[in-house]
Amino acid sequence: AGYIALRAFSRHKPPTVRLVVTNYGSDIFWFRQFPEHVKKIARLLCLTDLYAAECQRDILLAREMGFRGEAAPLVPNAGGIPESKVIKAADLDPKRKTIAVKGYHGWVGRAHNVLRALEVLEDEVREYKFIFFSCNWSTIRLAKKVRKSTNLDIVCFAKGKLSHDQMLKLFAQSKLYIGVSESDGISTSMLEAMSQGAVPIQTGTSCAEEWLQDSGVVVNGTDAESICTAIRQGLTISSNSAAAKINRDTILRRATSSTVAEKLERFYE
Question: Measured at the alpha carbon of residue 103, what is the angle toward residues 97 and 107, in degrees to the nearest 5?
Answer without folding.
Answer: 155
